[in-house]
Amino acid sequence: MYLDRVLGWFSVDMGIDLGTCNTLVCVRGEGIVLNEPSVVAVRKGTNQVLNNGQAVGWMAKEMLGKTPGSITAVRPLKDGVISDFEITEAMLKYFIQKVNGRTKIFGPRVVISVPSGITAVEKRAVFTSAERAGARQIYLVEEPVAAAIGAGLPFTEPTASMIVDIGGGTTEVAIMSLADIAVCESIRVAGDDFDEAVINHMKKTYNMMIGEQTAERIKIEIGSASPLGEEKTLEVRGRDMISGLPRKVVVTSEEIREALQEPVGSIIEAVTRTLERAEPELAADLVDNGIMMAGGGSLLRGIDVVIQNATGLEVRIADDPLTCVARGTATYLENIEDWKGTLENDMEA
Ligand code: ADP
Ligand code: MG
């Protein structure tokens, strides 16, 4: 205990949100110090991370645009499961060392939030990767729990809290009480699927091919889940599928909303299913406590409204939903002595 405190002066405490889209690191006393895409550039057909293991995050994204062909981008957590252990390890190692390298002598203490759907083997892999990256102490916390902490919900109290965290690859829905997850569901429908729905709509309606980044931009600029006070339009550029030539069209927020209906519907179903599975006492608490949303997908206009309409519960969006989980992991680390053992699934070095 005393030794721990002394070590603390010479080492850093970091909370890591290992997301399907973005990885964030939050350091005690400093806030968010790293926010990069969960992307790794490898030589095609191999697990070899380019630039001696440095082609991670922004650097990987940048390299992609410039050197197509033999290089591919891998999002190792894309669907909320670890598709490639080695690449995940390289990524985690790079991020931990990037943050730790600039300061301290001893290895950091880290809390890593992992999707609630991942297997024991995958958890072990994350744990081992952090160990190899030089972490002195490692705790894993399930993403909905970290989101609840980050959003300031009373998750240790004997009352129900509900989180809907819409990320890039997965949406996590969980009801917790007394620092424990009572029911949860993780579905592979989230922000990426909104983009894909936009791509399909452009193909079907305009015979136009657009890239993922354009699709994401359309979603962010004019996308919505429920009618907007003032509907919007956007000029979109892409490639005509018949002539093969570049052209542009004007799309409206109404048609994009229509296109997003299916993935949005899947998320609503996951929310109502989870509510149906909750014990009556917990469900009753939610009448007062409502639902809290987090993750980048919760920024889709009107997504709170459609969930509110479908459930009859009050829906709020966390402050700064993109950093909610990362901030939650750091807070968890600050309170670790009090909370240790109350969380069932954490591991300790
Ligand atoms: P993860 O935790 O899986 O890494 P994030 O919580 O970082 O995911 O959210 C990433 C998703 O949020 C992406 O699909 C991105 O397009 C989406 N997103 C970010 N900002 C917005 C916005 N303003 N409106 C709609 N979607 C957004
Ligand atoms: Mg997330």
Describe it.
The chain has 349 residues and is an alpha/beta fold. Helix content is 42%, strand content 24%. The protein has 13 helices and 15 strands. A five-stranded mixed β-sheet has the order 3-2-1-6-7, sandwiched between helices. Strand 12 and strand 13 form a beta hairpin. The radius of gyration is 21 Å and the shape is flat. The model has no long low-confidence stretch (mean pLDDT 90). Bound molecules: adenosine-5'-diphosphate and magnesium ion. The site of magnesium ion has 7 residues, from loops.
User: Which descriptor suits the 3D outline?
Assistant: flat
**Helical element count?**
13
Q: What is the total tally of β strands?
A: 15
What summary fits the major beta sheet? 5 strands, mixed
pLDDT averaged over residues: 90
Approximately what portion of the residues adopt beta-strand conformation? Answer: 15-25%
Distance separating the two termini: 15 Å
Quickly give the structural class: alpha/beta
How would you write the strand order of the largest sheet?
3-2-1-6-7
- What is the ordering of alpha helices and beta strands? HEEEEHHEHEHEHEEEHEHEEHHEHEHH
Distinct small molecules bound, one entry per kind: adenosine-5'-diphosphate, magnesium ion
List the uncertain runs.
Answer: none
Gyration radius, to the nearest Å?
21 Å
Helix percent reads 40-55%
